[in-house]
Amino acid sequence: MGADEIRSQGFNLNELFRDVTYEIDYYQRDYTWGEEEVRTLLRDLCESFRNWSGDSLYRRRPHTAPQYFLGPFVYHEPSRNRRYLVDGQQRFVTLHMLFLQLRLWAQEAGDPQTVDQLNRVITTDGKHFCVGITDHDPVLRAISEGRKYETGTGDSLSRRNLWARSQQMESQLVEELDAEELHHFTEWLLKRVILVGIRAAGPDHGYRMFETMNDRGARLTAVDLLKSHLLSNVGAGEEQLNTQWQEMLRELSTDRDDPQAASRFIKAYLLARCAREGDADDRRQITTNLNVWVRHNAAHLGLITGRPDRFLEFVQHLLNSARLYRPFLAATRTLKREGDRLETVFYNERNGLGAQSVAVLAAIDPDDQPTNAKDKCRLVAAYIDRWYALRILQDLPVQSADADSLVHSELVPLLRTCRTVNDVAAALAGLVADDGGAIRDAVTLGLRGNNAHQIRYLLARATAYVEEACRRPYDVLDYLDRDKFHIEHLWANHHHRVRQEIPDKVVFRSLRNQLGGLGLLMGRENSSLNDLPLTEKTAHYARGNVLLGIMADGYDRRNPVLREFIKTHQLDKLLRPFGARDTMTSVIRTRQDLYLRLFEHIWEPGRLGLPVPTPPAPNGTAPTAAPIRQPQRRTATRGRRTQVAQMIQAQVLKAGTRIVLAYRSTEHWATIDEDGGIILAATGGTPYGRVDEAGAVARGTKTCQGMSEWHVEDETGARISLRTVRDRAVDAGLL
After folding, report:
1. Which residues in 177-246 belong to E strands, given as ranges?
2. Which residues contact 369 (CB under 8 A, 6 or more apart)?
3. Average pLDDT of the residues in 331-359
């Protein structure tokens, strides 16, 4: 290459990482990607893979599948197979962690072919990582070996963040993909995901490129281009529009130092108040290229050339909405329990429900008073939080895509028609009446393969609710922190201790993991209890929170506040101590009922400000107030997107179909319900959302390729795997 010659080349991930080591120069920053960036990348990759894998032509000829472009990166190459990253470190480190998590999964699944594929892009020689950043090595070793990394006071930001993001990846991958998709996803990821490398001539040239990209003026963003377009249409009003625009940016930066805040706000505003109902193309264009969408839809927005007042009015609405939006924006980062009482905003953001911002802006009118806007925000966030809790309790998907569907298909069309706070409350109350599925139906729900984050959330909310009612100090953020508080199993994983009471290992595993068999315990306490029997643990529990401490004999003595709470909530038979004569089954059933009763109080609509809808008058006359328009409700499989749910919907399988899994000479039976859920015959109760989870519980293993291992019986008694049933349906054009 010449002294300053720049070259570019496209690489798939297999080409990019195989037999190459990547390092970073001294001027590079720490690894700083947060939850949202990692969640978005994984979600986009998995959704793109699903679009590919759902096409039978691409499955037969994978090399013809469209490529997924992951952007450019800049590097220089001092020697063969050794590259220094100038720009792209965050993506490379994230992809490398993804490879590590996929390899762990493949090892657990006994898939040597996938393990071998991933080995080639993880290390160069079996020892040294392809992304060779020395500071990262201790964390990457721990991830690679499947052990916990103990963060210490001397750890860098990069190390702490690497460990947190790796744990996030582990949970999200299991949520996004079925076990049998692991091999196909890995092949697609390595061969069809593309980056374009821009090669600098050397380190000095690379540093100059880095400076150019980062220090010589910010690139024009979609927000800048939108502002330019609006300015070009206001004539003499340029100064007024510019002043309003700058004021809007200040409103959005006061509580959160985030350069993307303005872009996210404007996108959310356009989606909430301007996009056409049910128009997926509008949503896609606003999300990817908002300034182009505004220009192309000027007539729809009322932005008429020659009418500068319309453009000024559009920006004024943006400014007014930004002012009203500011408390919400602050609440997404800081828990606002008192005063504003916007704690559910924070919870939703933490739970990956960022689409709530669109619903909030759909409810807020630019001319609202600040108090009314805040009240609307509180109602919308509380409803979404309740929706999330109910979905967990019904073992339904709670990913970002599910929240997007709720917001765009149901909440936005409904909330746009609301004017007052009472309108919003009444509209959301109408949705509550149609939610379906009582909380108390979750009689066997607990820890499953992919829901540790959600179960922790339920436990944290219940624990905090009781602590607050009993006037005890608490920090719900500590409860949500997996390092500070562990999910404690009341019973150790020793079936032999209760074999006489519960002969079936599947029933034991299911009971042990039910909500009623769990609690939150400080990490150092959890580590010290190890495998003690419950009767020996309760004395230690007494030093913790009320929900665990109450199990110790005499805990409620000389505690009038606790006794009053028990009486008021009618929990005398549930929130109580247990003795040596209480069986595992009775304790867990009692505690399960206790948690479900608490959830009913926590998410009771009236407590959230959502009035119970008034029933029609006895004579059948309609109410005098104009009814709020209700959106059309989804009916298909209640949101499950699994292959079993698709087969039920296409009538390839019928509700009530019995399936069987044989493992180590034992047959485990289950039934498929009308929503595609899997109900184990041994346990009954809350359906498992996926065959992988049901199979893992039946087998007593961490993973299971459910589509291959569960079988149906035909009329002759021959057993056919669910995977074969699906493949035949695909070939017949039924799926």
Report:
1. 193-199
2. none
3. 88
Which range among 83-97, 188-202, 611-625 shows the weakest confidence by mean pLDDT? Answer: 611-625
Q: Could you give the maximum distance between any two Cα atoms of the chain, in Å?
A: 89
pLDDT at 627: 43
Q: What is the mean pLDDT of residues 135-139?
A: 90
Residue 205, both tokens = 């040239």
Place of tokens 């994978």: 62
Parallel, antiparallel, or unpaired: how do β-strands 82-87 and 21-24 relate?
parallel
SS3 state of residue 32:
coil
* Strands across the sheet containing 68-79: 7-12, 193-199, 68-79, 82-87, 21-24
Q: Return the closest-CA partner of residue 328 out of 358, 357, 287.
A: 357
Least confident of 377-391, 506-520, 691-705: 691-705
CA distance linking residue 312 with residue 44, whole number of Å: 36
Give the type of residue at 470.
C
* Residue ranges of E strands in 61-206: 68-79, 82-87, 193-199
Burial per residue of 34-46, b for 16 or more beta-carbon CB atoms within 10 angstroms, e otherwise:
ebeebbebbbebb
Structure tokens at 159: 């190390």
**C-beta of residue 159 within 8 angstroms of C-beta of residue 151:** yes
pLDDT of residue 721: 95
Q: C-alpha angle with apex 339: 337 to 342, nearest 5 degrees?
A: 45
Question: Dihedral, CA atoms, 314, 316, 321, 323, nearest 10 degrees?
Answer: 160
59-101: per-residue pLDDT in tens? 667 777 788 999 888 888 888 888 888 888 899 999 999 999 9
Asked if residues 476 and 350 have their Cβ atoms less than 8 Å apart, the reply is no
Name the burial class of residue 505, with classes exposed (0-12), middle (13-18) and buried (19+) by CB atoms within 10 angstroms of its CB. Answer: middle
- Alpha-carbon span 333 to 351, nearest angstrom: 12
CA distance 329 to 576: 41
| pLDDT grade for 617, boundaries at 50, 70 and 90 | low
Which residues touch 115 (CB under 8 Å, ≥6 apart)? 103, 106, 107
Alpha carbon distance 464, 520 (integer Å): 11
Tokens for 160? 């702490």
What DSSP character marks residue 414? H
pLDDT in tens, 565-606: 999 999 999 999 998 899 999 999 999 999 999 999 999 999
Its sign, for the CA torsion 78, 83, 88, 93, is: negative
Say how far apart CA 585 and CA 588 lie, in whole Å. Answer: 5
Tens-place pLDDT, residues 241-294: 889 998 888 888 755 556 778 888 999 999 999 999 989 899 989 988 898 999
Q: Strands across the sheet with 666-672, in order?
A: 678-680, 666-672, 658-663, 711-713, 719-721
Q: Is 241 exposed, middle or buried (0-12, 13-18, 19+ CB in 10 A)?
A: buried
3-class secondary structure, 697: helix
Residue with the two structure tokens 């040239």: 205
The burial of 192, by beta-carbon neighbours within 10 Å (0-12 exposed, 13-18 middle, 19 or more buried), is given as buried
CA distances from 539 to 490, 495, 553 (A): 13, 23, 8
C-alpha R_g of the chain? 28
Q: Which residues, 6+ apart, have CB-to-CB distance to 619 below 8 Å? A: none
Rounded-to-integer distance, Cα 271 and Cα 283, Å = 6
Q: Where are the alpha helices (DSSP H) in 302-451?
A: 308-331, 343-350, 356-363, 370-393, 400-405, 412-415, 421-433
d(C-alpha 287, C-alpha 280), whole Å: 11
Q: Summarize pLDDT for 353-366 with one digit per residue, the tens.
A: 989 999 999 999 99
Model confidence at 622: pLDDT above 50: no
In angstroms, the CA 695 to CA 707 distance is 9
* SS3 assignment, position 421: helix
Strand partners, 667: 662
Partners of residue 669 on adjacent β-strands: 660
